[in-house]
Amino acid sequence: MTIKRSVVLGVGSALPARVVTNEELAKKVDTSDEWIVQRTGIRQRYIAGEGETSSTLGLKAAEAALKDAGLTSADLDLIIVATTTPDLTFPSTATQIQARLGMTHGAAFDIQAVCSGFVYGVTIADKFLTSGSHNRILVIGVDTLSRIIDWNDRTTCVLFGDGAGAIVLEAQNQKGDVNTDRGVLTTHIRSDGRHGPKLCATGGPSTTGTSGVLTMEGKEVFKHAVGMITDVITDAYAATGFTSDDLDWFVPHQANKRIINSSADKLGIAPEKVVITVDRHGNTSAASIPLALATAYGEGRIKKGDLVMLEAMGGGFTWASALLRW
C-alpha cells in the first residue's frame, strides 16, 4: 500500500539589491550595532528599492525554484503566495506572478498569516497534493515589510528586512513509513486572535484606507513565542514518533536569535542543527523560512533524506510547524 506525500523538487530565493547595515541605521535612529546584535543577532538586512516589490521578488524566487526543479510554469497546477505586503489590495500577488510566469491554466491565490504564512502555505499545498486533486504546487513566501515600517521607531525598524523564497512541491507515491518516506510528514497550524494587538499594523483598506505601520510589543511577543513554537513542534513529534535527536535540521522563523536559541534549547535541539540566517537577512516575515531553506540548501547543508523541521510564529498570533524529509 502506498500513500501520497508532498516532496520538495526545487528551492529558490530572491533578495533586493540594497543591503542596510546596523551602522547605517545607527546614523538615523538612536541605536548601535552592538545593541542590535546583542538583542536580536541581526547585523544587516536587505531593503527593497524602486521597482522592487513583493511580486517582482516573488517572481525571481519562483523562477529560481522552477529552475532548480527542472520544471516550467506549464508543469504547475497551483501557486500559493504567503504575504502580508501585497503589491495591490487586489488582484493578488499570486495572480500577478502567475501572469509573469506565462501560466494561463490552474489557479493562484494569496494567504495571510504574517510570519507563519509560508508554513501555512505548505500545509495548504500538502492537503491539495495528498488529496490527489493536484500534482505540483509552487509555494512562495514574500514580504516587503520595509514599506510598512516606521523608520523613526528604533524598536521595530532594526528588526525587519525584505525578501522572497519559494519551493516546488510534487505529489509522489511513498510507502507510508515516516522513517523512510520523503516529503511532508506532518503539519500543525494554530492561531489565537486575542493576541492580535501585540503585533499588528495600524491601518487597512476597511479602516483607515491606508496600510498603516507595523507596531509590536516586543516583550509580550518574546514571552509567548517560545511556548507557542515548542507547542507545535511537540505536536509534530507526537504525530510521527520522532524526537529532537532525530532531526538533521531545525529551520525556524528568523525573527530573533534569542528566540531561536531559547526554543532550540527548550526542545533539546543541538546548536549545530539550527539554521540561522537572521544575522544577514533580518526578519523577513513570510519569506524568512524559505530564505533560510534556500541558504542552507544552496550551501550544501540540507541534503536528500535529511529530516527537517520548519516552524514559525507571527502576528495574529499565528504559529505553525511542518516536518518533512528532504
Oligomeric form of this entry? single chain
Q: Could you tell me the mean pLDDT?
A: 97
What is the number of independent domains?
2
Order of helices and strands: EEHHEHEHEHEHEEEEHEHHHEE
Q: In what order do the strands lie side by side in the largest sheet?
A: 1-7-6-4-5
What's the CATH first level of the largest domain? Alpha Beta
Individual helix count? 10
Largest β-sheet summary: 5 strands, mixed
Helix content estimate: 25-40%
Q: What is the CATH architecture term of the largest domain? A: 3-Layer(aba) Sandwich
Globular, elongated, flat, extended or rod-shaped: what is the shape? globular
Could you tell me the CATH topology label of the largest domain: Peroxisomal Thiolase, Chain A, domain 1
How far the N terminus sits from the C terminus, by CA atoms, comes to: 22 Å
CATH superfamily heading of the largest domain: Thiolase/Chalcone synthase
Instruction: Please state the CA-atom Rg, rounded to the nearest Å.
Output: 19 Å
Low-confidence stretches: none
Estimated structural class: alpha/beta
| Number of E-state strands | 13
